[in-house]
Amino acid sequence: MDNNQEKPKMNMPKFNMTWIYTLVIISILVAYFTTDKTPSNAVKEASYTQFKSIVNKGWAQKIVVNKEQNILAIYVKGDHVKEVFGYTPNPKGKIPYVEVEFGSVDQVEQFVETARDKALFKGELVYENEKESNTLNMILYNVLPIILLVGLWMFFFRRMGGGGGAGGVFNVGKSKAKMYEKGGELNVTFKDVAGQEGAKQEVQEIVDFLKNPQKYTELGGKIPKGALLVGPPGTGKTLLAKAVAGEAGVPFFSMSGSDFVEMFVGVGASRVRDLFRQAKEKSPCIIFIDEIDAVGRARSKSPATGGNDERENTLNALLTEMDGFGTNSGVIILAATNRADMLDSALLRAGRFDRQIHVDLPDLNERKAIFMVHLKPVKTDSSVDIDFLARQTPGFSGADIANVCNEAALIAARHNSSHVCKQDFLDAVDRIIGGLEKKTKVMTASEKKTIAIHEAGHATVSWFTEHANPLVKVSIVPRGRALGAAWYLPEERAITTRDEMLDEMCATLGGRAAEELFTGNISTGAMNDLERVTKSAYGMIAYAGMSDKLPNICYYNNNEYSFQRPYSETTAKIMDDEVLKMINEQYERAKQILTEHKEGHAKLAELLTEREVIFAEDVEHIFGKRPWTSRAEELLEAQQRADAEAMAERRAQQLAEQEKEKKEGK
């Protein structure tokens, strides 16, 4: 046998204080339940006269007197037990006794002394207290509940204090931040972040600050103390922070704003101080706080509003740690939020968050780059055109595009396809925008005709309004809560003019106008259209100053603690009148367009009833080419021209290089 062979390791259980607590409780319970307890048939109650009779007969072996309860117990000699109790006791069992109530201890003592003198009682006379005899009962009834309550208290406070680790309740003020010693632990780099080139460049500079600080400090510059990532949900703010953690060679602390919030007073501020203490020990390092609006919301300006004092104390501690008397050299704060308008102004000032990095929704080229990232693991065929997919998803965030790619793969797998094709992506976009297709929903012929007339009205009016979004397709297949829908290709505008908003409003009202004109009745199917139109009209008048009677005035109020609208009742009445006037004008305009093209609308509604889904090509076949070229089409043509010019330039360079190689070869 090889002596050098390793011995198998014994998996010994780890020591835990819980074992000791458990053993103590079990020992007390065992002691209680195994204590000698006289059975009921070993105790016999008797009168004081019977007690004197037993003693005078010489049967008494021992007398135990309890002074507090005036009760005495007579233990009878074994030879006479059967005569007193009527049975022969078990030698290994409990010793039986007779229990007697007496009036006076002096009387008992005098009687016992007389019995001793007459040699009738030779045993011992013992005095006991109830407290001494019931010591164990007192422990169990008084001490044991306290022990159980303390145990439960420690258990729950350990759970609330951050888990079952050592310390329990004493760790409730400790920071919950997760630290990554090496950024590569997250396996996310800047290569994984598509689009957002401007935001990516700014956070790359932060990483460069930490790697090469002398490059900036030699010129008199200072490393920024913090950067705030601001943008809509799903645009990649947290992904950028993960990329910073993956690229930086310094410790990275990550936590959420809600981790500071606790039910105990002062815990949030304590966690802030503990987080910065750890960061200073590890500096240079980065602290990332996701959803900082949970703790950085603007403080109340009026005590009467009853603000959350605990949250405000936490924010005060955060403000002090970020830029107070203490030094935080080498500690950079990254934070993310989609509610920057709700943050406290003291948190946003230079010296705390020196930079606000806006992470907006991706444009056309950025959506192409995002699709290329998310399509890498997807098996696609030659029909998939990334340019087409990017144009079909305006207003989509990076998270939405990832969802489109995943939904397309699921749809293809549902159809048992070996690859994901173009139609799968189109179905995925429809699924995300409109909801799940309800093929089992039953509609009558009249309902189906009304819906077709409604959707054809949208398509017709949008086709003949200059600034309305270009039509992609129209469907009367129920999806989600909608009975029908028209898909458009929204133009990505930097600014929106009054005419563009009015054209959109007119196209939205086209469905209700078509119902009234061609069915002689109106339905509830236009409720969503009316809601959108009303919100748009109030926004134009109250915020954008696009009203004839209230021009160049904005009543937008960003003060969350203000409970009064910033205009009078008279102004509110003017707003209501202007909204009604604007919507009615566009409604009459929609009816006028439909009246002028009622034959084409009828053909479109009939085709829609027959096919259930029609495309822009079908509308163009009925009405002819759209009179106006959309901005999206102009951008597409410009992009195609730029691509063609770049391709021609590359081709010319290749030809020039080939000619040069031929000359050198000769």
Topology:
Layout: H1 17-34, E1 43-46, H2 48-56, E2 60-66, E3 71-76, H3 81-85, E4 97-101, H4 105-117, E5 124-128, H5 130-133, H6 135-160, E6 178-180, H7 197-211, H8 214-217, E7 226-230, H9 237-247, E8 252-256, H10 267-282, E9 285-290, H11 293-296, H12 309-322, E10 331-337, H13 345-348, E11 355-358, H14 364-374, H15 386-392, H16 398-414, H17 422-434, H18 445-463, E12 471-475, E13 485-488, H19 498-508, H20 510-519, H21 527-543, H22 569-596, H23 598-611, E14 613-615, H24 616-623, H25 631-665
Parallel strand pairs: 1-4, 2-5, 7-10, 7-11, 8-9, 9-10
Antiparallel strand pairs: 2-3, 3-4, 6-8, 12-13, 12-14
Helix pairs in contact: 1-6, 7-9, 10-12, 14-15, 14-16, 16-17, 18-19, 18-20, 18-23, 19-21, 19-22, 20-22, 21-22
Using brief descriptors, characterize the structure shown.
666 residues; six-stranded mixed β-sheet; 10% strand
Could you explain the architecture of this structure?
The strands form three sheets. This protein has a six-stranded mixed β-sheet. α10 links the parallel β8 and β9. It has helices at residues 17-34, 48-56, 81-85, 105-117, 130-133, 135-160, 197-211, 214-217, 237-247, 267-282, 293-296, 309-322, 345-348, 364-374, 386-392, 398-414, 422-434, 445-463, 498-508, 510-519, 527-543, 569-596, 598-611, 616-623, 631-665; strands at 43-46, 60-66, 71-76, 97-101, 124-128, 178-180, 226-230, 252-256, 285-290, 331-337, 355-358, 471-475, 485-488, 613-615. It has 666 residues and is an alpha/beta fold. The two termini are 80 Å apart. Helices cover 50% and strands 10% of the residues. The chain is built from 25 helices and 14 strands.
